[in-house]
Amino acid sequence: MEILAFGVQADEKPLIERAFAAPHAVRCLEVFLTEDTAPIAAGHEVISSSVNDDLNARVLRALAAGGTRMVAQRSTGYNNIDLDTAERLGITVARVSYYSPHSVAEFAWTLAMAVNRRVVRASTRTRDFDFRLDGLMGRDMHGRTAGVLGTGKIGAVFARIAHGFGMRLLGWDAAENPVCLGLGMEYVPKDRLLAESDLISLHVPLMPETQHLIDAAALKAMKDDAILVNSSRGGLVDTEALVAELREGRFTGVGLDVYELEAGLFFLDKSLEAIEDDTLARLMTFPNVLVTSHQAYYTEDAVTQIIDTTVRNVLDYEAGRRSQNTLVPRG
Fold first, then answer.
1. Which among 90, 105, 201, 297 is least buried, having the fewest CB atoms inside 10 angstroms?
2. 142 part of the active site
3. What is the pTM of this model?
């Protein structure tokens, strides 16, 4: 059986081909799965999707018509998949429920320190042999307050790094994490966390309850000189509201590895095209904002874990087994 993998990055391809070499053949495609590309999957019982593939009802119906019976998603998030339609069509769906939390947490800190210490601006200047320090002053993290929204595996690693900096820790989550409590974290209501934190990092999944978790009211509750980092899901932040606050000169820095309308943009080369998304274009103009292209997970360690788990998910599907990764079981 040949597995068809959509949305494969160049660095991922050899890892995917090596992982699938023993159990199955695999064909890697750079193109993302959409209504236009779904017919390519005809004749493939199993396809593998990425987080920016679009598996809406129409796409799933096209896959089912072509004989696809299993979708192996190469990510933890699965808000891009219509699970109800998949179940009605008899398409098994599995995801990667766990991979290295250090990859995302460390990158969140990379964003935080980059905007705090004006690293991008400094690098641009020195490339032009401009070695002035004007406008490059940052702040010590030691002694300041880190607010962690979502204290699961990734949030806990982020908190551990913050603890290493000597920061006071505030947390917000549905359940308290003993690991974070052991670091001295105090769990508080969201409004208090926003009001008291110098650095706020988001580590919650995207679901209807967390859509625009950071909305206009939340942004106004934050300190004027706060740092906001989102390495989780773009939909957690109301981007238009964020732009409005940035126009008022607020926030020391904002680091975004995700964007709520990133599908069709991120992972693609758009350098020779006009960007029609006015909100994203405006966001890019602020000197205190750093946007990266959903790369927080993108370490050799994490990607290897993701691919290995994807292979196991396919083998589980063939054997009729369920696991913690199963979203829609085999009928």
1. 90
2. no
3. 0.90
